[in-house]
Design a protein that fits this description.
Blueprint: E1 2-6, E2 12-17, E3 20-22, E4 28-30, E5 34-46, H1 57-71, E6 74-78, E7 85-89, E8 92-97, E9 100-105, E10 109-112, H2 119-136, E11 142-152, E12 155-162
Parallel strand pairs: 2-6, 6-10
Antiparallel strand pairs: 1-5, 2-5, 3-4, 5-11, 7-8, 8-9, 11-12
Length: about 170
């Protein structure tokens, strides 16, 4: 089993978000709207291919950079968060949480099929997207993919997805 890692300056994105959370007595809370300069790192594990590599570094870096570019300078909207009321109309998203209401231009929103825009869920979403791209490239030698989303230096979350020989 071999492992490769990619990370670096081009694997970053700046995005706005807030997270929702429940209090001990069931009261809901949320962070204020804020942003992070996220850094993304990816590890692939697997056997060597016929060309003696796990996966082409350049291609992997290109795939991850494209995902980062999709999220760059946007508001990350968790569309599966049952605490948010989300309406889309007239070129805007209207997001309501408790007594807060946000109206954000549609072009500035990245709706993500996650329940909260935490670093943990972002790492999981990125891993799922990347796994699909690796499958489409026939990377059958891979056994696992780990994505780390760092929202601040020394503060990151990782998600590992077993790939079990991508068909």
């Amino acid at each position: 089993m071999r492992r490769i890692d990619v990370y670096g300056a081009e694997l970053r994105f700046a995005a706005a978000h807030f997270t929702t959370f429940g209090g001990e007595c069931g009261e809901l809370g949320s962070e204020r709207l804020h942003g992070h300069n996220y850094a993304v790192a990816v590890q692939l594990e697997g056997d060597l291919s016929a060309d003696s590599w796990v996966f082409d570094f350049v291609e992997l870096r290109r795939l991850v950079a494209a995902l980062c570019q999709e999220l760059d300078h946007a508001f990350l909207l968790p569309t599966e968060n049952h605490h948010l009321k989300v309406e889309r109309g007239e070129g805007h998203y209207h997001v309501t949480f408790a007594d807060r209401r946000y109206v954000i231009p549609e072009t500035d929103v990245r709706p993500l099929p996650i329940d909260n825009s935490t670093a943990e869920r972002l790492a999981e979403w990125l891993a799922g997207r990347l796994a699909g791209q690796l499958r489409s490239r026939g990377a059958a030698n891979l056994s696992s993919l780990t994505v780390t989303a760092e929202e601040a230096p020394g503060q990151s979350a990782s998600f590992t997805l077993p790939l079990d020989a991508i068909p």
